[in-house]
Amino acid sequence: MTVALAVLLPLVAAVLVPFGGRVGALGRRVAAFAPLALLLPLMSGERGEWRWVLLGIELAVDPWGVPFVLLTAIAWSASGYFALRGLGRGSWGFWLGWSLSLWGMVLVLLAQNLVTFYLGYVAVSLSAYLMITHARTSAAWRAGRIYLLLAFAGEAAIVSGVLVLAGHYGNVSLPLLATPDFAAGVAAARWPLFVGFAVKLGIVPLHVWLPLAHPIAPVPASAILSGVIVKAGLLGWLKLIPPQGLEAAASAPALLWLGLATAFVGVLLGLTQGKLKTVLAYSTISQMGLVLVAYAAYSLQPGDARWLAAIGLLALHHGLTKTSLFLAAGCAPGASGVRRLLLALPALSLAAAPFATGYLAKGWLGRAVAAGIDAGALASISYTLLTFTSAATALLMWRLWLLALRERDAEAALHPAWALAALAALTVPWLYAGASDLLIIPTVPSVWAATWPILVAGAIVLLARVPRRPGLTLPEGDLVVVLEKLASRIAPPQLPAVPSVPAGARLLSTLGRSLAGAESLLRELPMVGLLMLLISVVVWLLLWL
Amino acid sequence: MTSTTVYLLAASAVFGIGVYGLIVADHILRKLLALNMMGSAVFVFILTVAGVTPEGPDPLAQALVLTGIVIAVAATAFALALMVRMFQETGLTSLQGHDGDD
Amino acid sequence: MTTEALTLLVFAPLAGALVMVVAPRRAAAPIAVLSLLTLPPALVPLTRAVRAGELVQLPLAGFAAPLGIVWRVDALAVTMLLLSVAVVLLVSLHALASFPPERESGQRFWPLWLILVSSLHALFLSADLFNLYVTLELVTLAGVALIAVRGEPAAMRAAMRYLLLGLMASLFYLLATALLYGQTGTLDLYLVGERLEAGGLTAIAVALMATGLLLKAAIVPLHVWLPAAHGKAPGPVSAVLSALVVKAALYILIRLWFWGGGGQAGEHAALLLGVLGALAILYASAAAIAQRRLKMLVAYSTLAQLGYVMLLFPLASAGAYRAVVFHVVAHGIAKAAMFLAAANLLRALGSERLQRLAGAGSRHGLDVLAFALAGVSIMGLPPSGGFVAKWLLLAAAWQERGWAWVVVISVGSLLAAVYVFRVVSLAFAQPLREPERAASAGEEQGRAQLTSVAALLLAALAIVLGLASAPLIALIDQGLPPGMLR
Amino acid sequence: MTIGVLVDVLLALSLVGLSLQVVTGRALFRDLVLFILFGLLIALSWARLGAPDVALAEAAIGAGLTGALMLMAYRRLAAGGAADVSPARRRPLLALPVAALAGILVAIIGLSAQGVERVPDAAGTLVLQELSATGLGNPITGVLLVFRGLDTMLEMAVLLVALLGAWAVLGAAHPGRLHQVDRETPLVSALLTTVAPVTLLIATHLLLVGTDAPGGAFQAGAVLTGCGVLLVLTGTVRPRAAAGLLTKLLAIAGLAAFALIGVSALALGRAPMTLPGMWAVYLIETAMMLSIALTMTLLFARSRALGPEQR
Amino acid sequence: MTEVVHPLPIVVVLVSLLAGLAIAALGERRQRLRTVLNLTAAVLKLGLVLWIALLVMDGVVPVFRFPLVPGFDLLLRADSLSILFASLSAVLWLVTTVYAIAYMEHYDNRARFFGFFSICVTATMGIAMAGNLLTFFVFYELLTLATWPLVVHTGSRAALRAGRTYLRFTLGGSALFLVGLIWLYALAGTQDFIAGGSLGLLELDAHASLRAIFVLIAIGMGVKAALVPLHAWLPTAMVAPAPVSALLHAVAVVKAGAFGLVRLVADVFGGGLTAELGLGLALAIAASFTIVYGSVLALGQSDLKRRLAYSTVSQVSYIALGIAIGGPIATVGGMVHLVHQGVMKITMFFCAGTFATLLGVTRIDELDGLARRLPWSAAAFSVAALGMIGLPPMAGFVSKWYLGAGAVAVGQTWVVAVLVASTLLNAAYFLPLVSRMWLRPAPDRWPGGSQPSAWVTAGMVVPALVTAGLTIAFGVLAGSTLSPLDWAIAIAREYVP
User: Fold this and answer.
1) Are the Cβ atoms of E183 and C430 closer than 8 angstroms?
2) Is the pTM of this model over 0.95?
3) What is the predicted ipTM?
4) Per CATH, is B3-90 categorized as 3.90.1260.10?
């Protein structure tokens, strides 16, 4: 019942929001606060099973899934509260996307079998498009296109992996995948699924959609995109390709380096940006690099539930923090002291400043990596580099701060949702850690370990005199711009291409047109006869030989 | 060489000449002449090939020839009527050329 | 019973013709109807007897084979008679409207028509070489007269050509008959078959006879007369010429070949006949496609369809025999329907140019439907008689490992589809202009409808034949040629 | 080689020569005349071959009647100004292969026919054996009317079809526009007054003896036709536009009588075409003679009916 | 399963035949009676099919036998596979009839149209119930003949040209089909359809011949199933009125070809023999190629209906693919796609027809903002499009799931790549349409169209909504009893124990 409520409320909202008047208004309210219904199954611990729906739907909160559920419930409802202002009847497309992506996210969170997860994942991916393109500007269309392109690229990889899993075990119960009996299938599906979910997480070089999509979406949408929805990729890793066995361990170092690279690249690219939300998007990329590091570390000791919980903690911390930062971006954060404070605290937290939730989450991350180094599986320098990511993040937050100070438009009111989100970001991870035995009691060394990277960052800021404007500005979406130019050179856009087809697809449509030329030839009578005979003969010959 | 053989050979020859005439001749009337000569040749042929009985040529063959002659004249008469009408309608006495099918 | 039945089949239409010549005009229609309606009952005892395995024989005037003429009815003859009666009755329905017996045109048409029917039946019954000659002449002359019956110049030219070539063919046949009589001393086909010995004489006799019959049957390349003759003749005449008259010549050829000892001419000759058939199928189909006039197209289609019959000779198996005889029936019915429909369209549109057909589908739907249904059978598409025939023929060809024939048959039916659909698709096309002719009087309209109904009935029969083929096939199987094992 | 054979050879050579002339000639009228000559020579050959019945028929029908019909048709074409419009064109590309092939055919036929040997129990021999049972003296009449009556009946049907067909293609043109011999010419009137009754007499004679001796309905009919042709040519009878009942009855008489009697045998429990007695033979022969004569005369005159000149 | 001689199969076939003849005979003017007759026949047929389905569920297989040619009967036999196709046809027919009545409101020659329309369903029913290859062939050809007048219905030059192309392909294919049939007959005698394949039981030692036969017949089927390169007729046939396109694509023609391939593999050759002869792989490759090729071409089309047509080329091959891969799971996928593709594609064609009729929109770049004018149709279209891409919870996902999983289960992992490619391409050519309709601003003026009565509009919109609803329902309720999936699983159990 509680599970059903959590799943169905977003759907009810999706049905209601396209209507005008009170119905629509009710729908928007339901949509905004439906995420809170997620807390019900968390409390009841109920399972939901509907065998007759699709290929069988199974829902429950995973033992390790609590932080994710908390994150979704809090971040999403806070953003929803935020969204209720300003996004009214005219933006029913946004609300539809909102409700459906929420629905999908709930399914992803609670999925206990393959089909349920996939259903949710697709719903999240697709409906996010509605939010991204909400602005209807050409930039929004472009972001949407590229988002869809990459989403479907990811989807391709994911569906391959899902089908491979299905081929092995059918609509398998997901917890089983972590058991050794299922290692073979998981191994077979591992890489396609890894890559597919990596798109959602924005792992370099699959990150290009993120800096385009997140800034262009309305503020609350950016908040959940960056704060919650990217975590769907992480959930995918954890649920569908839970690390187990030697193979996972063997790939852990590579994943670790990839994660670190993402963390640094995200920051470096972010530093070249001139827009608040874009910087935040790059920050998300960077942070997701850290998530990958966590996943890699967890791969080394798959049996250890602590590391799994630590990953959850990291996600919870980042999600709430990023949500509050994005909401801040919608409230002219530089307009008053309170606002600046509400911005600064989460930003510091993200840089893992002592006593902040980032300190907690990254402390566990550090421990996980350290454990790996102790086991001899990881290079010891990785720990150092990990620490430097905090410095990098701090630099990026500085950049953020500078940009935020420009946003002084006092007209934009301070929305209570922001405050609530910031509050949650600063407290909830602690509470969760306390509840699940993950507290890190601050000690002097650990506080110092968290502090010096920030000091380093400060030093860099002071010494290098990082100017208010970055010396180098890169366009949003970095790599994609290069690719677009390349594609347009190969297939010039002024050709009467099918409109609104992504640049890459233009190539295909050119190919399609030239094939259509061959088609008309095919339709001619002698050709028909010739072909049929030719086929018969050739096949016949081939079969004879 | 008996007279039967002589007529048999002659009949064969006339048959061949008739075929030639029928095919090569242009005027319908001449074609009909050739046709009638062919017919006569065939009739002679029937009688000579059938052989003789003690009481003269095979009576059955003779009866066949009689029937054949009447059929031939009937067909010729009709053909002539057709030819004359055709001539009246089209002014043609030959079948050469198109049938007016474009 | 069978004696009376046989007599009726030949004499009823003959009597009808004679009475009609002398009777007053207003009595013409009843006479025609009456004399034709006696035919179906006559077939009942014959069919029953043959189905019971009986060979119905009637020595005319009581004189048996070498001396007299014997009417002999086996399964093949009954099949042909069934076809003939079915086609004649339905085509006559058309003729009742297109040649009203009480009018001048009908007065000219009907006696000839009835004599044609009578002589066709006499031909199918006869087992005597000379009697076959006489009936063949009678059929040809009546056919020629009917072609020219309207007195149209083009029709007369066609008739003239048909007549001259037909007479020549008859003489070939008669010459061969003489040779056969000289060698065997009998004119009875079956006795000839028994007595004939292989040799030069037999060879030339069979060759002459076959050539004559091939010409009468218009097998490519001896076909030049047929398209014009069938194309220019009035509708009912074309229908019966294509459905029955050319088949009569083939019927004699088949009789001669498989019953009369002609098969002794050997495999090579049979092969040649088959090749001619294949040539007919391919060439005539292509020619049909190239036609610009409706009835010419249908006539060329007849040529192509006749080609299938010729495949019997090289295949020479029970399966092929069954297939070919069935094909003769199926094509006869379908082609009669097609010619009637074509004639109706021609009359309604005032021109037989294919282009004028545009839009005929909506205004003359019944005729187009009849044409299309008949076309289905001609193309050999299921469910139709043509399909069953094609199926049987393909199966037979396959069984005899005649791959080339398989290809020819398949290609032939594809080509058939091309020309049939050329017509049908034109009928579906948007009309170029509205050449709507003045609405005809009520009586004329009634007549027009009757002609359409006749065509449609025949076309429906062509389809039904495909669904109810089993009895007919059983009947055909009853009378396989000697030496052919089922 | 006896004299007889020598005559035969000469006759045969003339036949071949004449036929060649007819086929390859250039003047149609001349070739027509040659064709009639050819017919007469054929009749002679029949006589030489010992077939007087056929000889009679050939002379009367094959040469005489056919020739007359041809000449009449020629005149009609000539009247339209088109008799010789198309002299035989030389078409060597067509003619040579045709000639070669026809020659080969002739050779094959001629050579293989040499090998024919009479079968002892041929149907013809049986006819002679069975003839006595029929009561007829002439085996040919026996074959025509008794043994193979169906052939003869259908032959009458052919004749009727020819007539009906000719009527059908007669068209609306006025039936008679013949160049007529002036009846008042003394010779002609004498001819008429003497020849007509004589031919009638000959015809009756031929018909009657036909049962036992050479002759019969065909020959009689042909002779009678000759009379009719004469009457038409002299204009004693003139073509008419519409056939009366009598004309029609006469035209179908032969066929009708034969068919009626043939079918009525069924009533007596006999096979169809069985003749009930000699009266039937005479009846049928007479009816056939009349039908033949009328039909051929009408065909000659190209008309639907004939009748005395109307004022 | 026990076979019982029963008139129901032939009655089902005859109902629409008689209705068709009656409609054609009624003439142009009796519109109301025609509509009543149309709908009555469609409802009656649906009822009869349900009746048969109930029988089959009780383990009774109704059979009707009638001698056609020596050695071969016209055999109508309603097994569970028949029911799958028959019920699809019956349901979609009812819907299409409603749609067509509204759509054809301003067309000429409606009596003819609906007459052939009904004969078409006759043929489809016959194909569904055919109990042997010959019977199948008979109705297969009847289908060709009955659909041709529908394709050329308008009689325009383009329509006639399309009709010609259609005939070239179908008749050419059927000629080869017939040769294959004859060969098979010569080799193995009469072969009724048997679950698991009748030929496998014979243990014939004629592999080369069997291969050739398979290829010949598969070409015959492949033409209608639009396997590349035998597909070129399909896009041309788009000139036909929208209900006809819907019919051709979703229910009758292409489906008949695909269904035939299923019968050929499953009931004649049998999965085992097909695989043993190496034909399964060959067919799978052909189908895969078609799937990708069709999608690539669809991408290049700027005309809505043509794009849909190429999409059909691609989608229908899923069925062939499933059956070619073999194994229980993929077989289910292939069979269930028979139904799923039907409801999805028919929805899209309904909508395309509605767009063209009401707004004159035929090109893709004219779709902008269309949802504002026709929100319900646009919604239906979008649902179907998402289903086509294979996104859950639409029906298309279920098919894709079973196909992919089935392929992996039998070790043909490469098929997954094909499915993924198809998914991407489908997304590439369908999502822009959806996006245009919903997210772009509407133009000031629409290209054309008419303003028919509310009834007519409803008659065009409601059927699309119904089928769109089915698209969702077949996906969402896939796991429930009596869903197409459940039925397909039951069938597959008969074939692959």
Assistant:
1) no
2) no
3) 0.82
4) no
